[in-house]
């Protein structure tokens, strides 16, 4: 009842309007709408709530949760879809799960309000710097499953996005809140008139503060726009050292069969679909690399081992089809699969289910149809690929029980065959019913070429691409980045566009192209300037192919790759110390 009374009061109405301003303007600024004008107004709701409730700590916490819930409802509404479809929960369970996750995973809002209010009372001035310092602290030190930063919205501006090479999305958040607070201060015409009047009356102290504030704003604007323009020009003029012809196959694979479909029939249709899509695209014009998405062929592996056979995930027809595609067209094939091994403490001689570890894995098959390097997903998604507690697995039968990988090596790929197949009759999926992987390789034995590595790429599975600090842990200099993902659980929503946009900054931080391959949309190629090539996105919930020439940009260790978030830490440290001594001196 107390909540209802608050919501119908004048204060409650104004508060909800503030929540809505931040939530809606952030959403409008972000993909797929991408209306960047609104981003500069989005923090106004936070600023106004803090100003109206400065020093009232309990109220600020409640308002922070209000921002969390409405922001989540507007920007992450697809999580409710995931909860009901992926988790299988009824609506009366899905709603409290949605609200609970909104609060737990958006603590940045109450933390921001509390820190801003605390510094505003202790310092009493430098509010644009307080605003930028507070958002950086809140984004840095609060838990987020989907790291959605305000800086990602700023990066919709192509020039400003280039600054991510030095400061990542964190630094762009700092820039946004610094500039936005100036705009917030000038939101009323009377305020602007009063400032000009006071300035013209020649009060020296006021004139000094006015000029200092205006100069700092101009300096920051020139710094970010100037540096962004310089970097854009610099990297636009870089000539690639090679080009790779890459084909993405989007098969729209089924994820589960709770609707009564025949699993065997659906999987056969899927494999036939992949077979025909690749043949249609490659028969007359071979490619260097074919990329299949996460769960492009679900439930199975091509890794033939005692453990995978015991776990019943090895399927010889899956391996045979991948070998057919690579040998038929003389190309590299990168695909996703399950994989399994035993825990180190497993007793020898007998395999038991509790000793088996499962992995979300992606593997390369060379142009000779031979399975080569694989990558096991390291950064697992909580509630999707693992549960924090054992008893929680009973809540959702769809949640995987995966172990994290440990290898952060690049995936090598090999020189493709330069001639067409000499076979009078090429193999297809139906042939795998009678012909195993070795039979396929024997059939195409005359097509075998010398294995020659021509490069390597950085493999990322699903949401790993949005964790900038994780991606820079990979060793070596890749030719490009490959992100395979499965967004089918989220239906026909904006999630797939948001997912890509959150990961798009990796292209700028690394100055490498990104090949994004999805199961059901949206697949896209992004260049080293963060531009989506031809703005060519595959449609959602459909089968599709997309093919581009991926440029290999000369290897250069960018500032972010070398030093990570060093500049953000320096900003927090220096500004924090200045505020500490300033507040202590004036206390």
From TrEMBL:
Its EC number is 2.3.1.269. The keyword Ligase does not apply. One of its GO terms (biological process) is lipoprotein biosynthetic process. One of its GO terms (molecular function) is N-acyltransferase activity. Keywords: Acyltransferase, Cell membrane, Lipoprotein, Membrane, Transferase, Transmembrane, Transmembrane helix. Residues 244-554 form the CN hydrolase domain. It is an enzyme of class 2 (transferase). One of its GO terms (cellular component) is plasma membrane. It comes from the Bacteria. Its main location: membrane. Catalyzes the phospholipid dependent N-acylation of the N-terminal cysteine of apolipoprotein, the last step in lipoprotein maturation. Belongs to the CN hydrolase family. Apolipoprotein N-acyltransferase subfamily. This is Apolipoprotein N-acyltransferase. The gene is lnt.
């Amino acid at each position: 009842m107390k909540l209802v009374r608050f919501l119908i009061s004048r204060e409650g109405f104004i508060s909800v309007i503030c929540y809505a301003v931040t939530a809606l303007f952030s959403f409008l600024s972000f993909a797929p709408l991408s209306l960047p004008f609104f981003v500069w107004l989005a923090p106004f709701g936070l600023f106004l709530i803090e100003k109206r409730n400065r020093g009232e700590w309990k109220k600020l916490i409640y308002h922070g949760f209000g921002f969390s819930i409405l922001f989540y409802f507007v920007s992450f509404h697809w999580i409710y879809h995931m909860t009901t479809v992926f988790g299988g929960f009824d609506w009366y369970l899905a709603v409290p799960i949605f609200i609970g996750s909104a609060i737990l995973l958006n603590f940045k809002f109450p933390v921001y309000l509390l820190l801003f209010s605390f510094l505003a009372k202790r310092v009493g001035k430098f509010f644009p710097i307080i605003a930028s310092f507070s958002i950086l602290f809140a984004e840095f030190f609060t838990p987020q499953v989907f790291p959605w930063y305000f800086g990602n919205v700023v990066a919709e501006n192509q020039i400003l996005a280039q600054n991510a090479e030095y400061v990542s999305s964190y630094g762009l958040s700092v820039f946004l809140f610094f500039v936005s607070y100036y705009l917030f201060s000038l939101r009323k015409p009377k305020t602007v008139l009063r400032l000009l009047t006071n300035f013209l009356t020649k009060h020296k102290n006021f004139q000094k503060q006015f000029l200092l504030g205006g100069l700092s704003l101009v300096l920051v604007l020139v710094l970010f726009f100037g540096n962004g323009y310089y970097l854009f020009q610099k990297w636009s003029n870089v000539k690639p050292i090679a080009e790779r012809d890459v084909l993405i196959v989007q098969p729209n694979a089924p994820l589960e069969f709770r609707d009564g479909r025949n699993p065997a029939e659906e999987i056969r249709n899927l494999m036939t679909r992949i077979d025909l899509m690749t043949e249609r695209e490659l028969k007359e014009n071979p490619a260097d690399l074919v990329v299949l998405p996460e769960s492009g062929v679900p439930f199975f592996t091509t890794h033939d081992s005692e453990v995978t056979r015991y776990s019943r995930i090895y399927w010889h027809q899956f391996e045979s089809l991948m070998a057919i595609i690579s040998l038929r067209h003389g190309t590299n094939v990168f695909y996703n699969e399950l994989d399994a091994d035993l825990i180190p403490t497993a007793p020898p001689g007998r395999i038991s289910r509790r000793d088996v570890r499962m992995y979300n894995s992606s593997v390369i098959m060379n142009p000779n149809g031979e399975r080569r390097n694989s990558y096991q997903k390291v950064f697992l998604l909580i509630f999707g690929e693992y549960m924090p507690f054992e008893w929680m697995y009973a809540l959702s039968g769809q949640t995987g029980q995966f172990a994290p990988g440990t290898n952060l090596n690049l995936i090598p790929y090999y020189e493709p065959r330069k001639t067409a197949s000499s076979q009078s009759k090429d193999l297809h999926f139906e042939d795998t019913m009678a012909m195993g992987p070795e039979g396929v390789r024997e059939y195409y034995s005359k097509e075998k070429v010398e294995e020659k590595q021509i490069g390597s790429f950085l493999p990322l599975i699903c949401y790993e691409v949005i964790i900038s600090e994780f991606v820079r842990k990979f060793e070596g200099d890749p030719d490009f980045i490959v992100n395979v993902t499965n967004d089918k659980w989220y239906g026909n929503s904006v999630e797939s566009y948001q997912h890509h946009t959150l990961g798009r900054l990796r292209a700028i931080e690394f100055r490498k192209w990104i090949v994004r391959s999805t199961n059901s949309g949206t697949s896209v190629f992004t260049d080293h300037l963060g531009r989506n090539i031809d703005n060519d996105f595959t449609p959602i919930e459909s089968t599709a192919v997309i093919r581009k020439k991926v440029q290999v940009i000369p290897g250069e260790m960018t500032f972010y790759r070398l030093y990570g978030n060093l500049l953000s830490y320096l900003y927090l440290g220096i500004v924090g110390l200045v505020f500490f001594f300033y507040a202590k001196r004036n206390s």
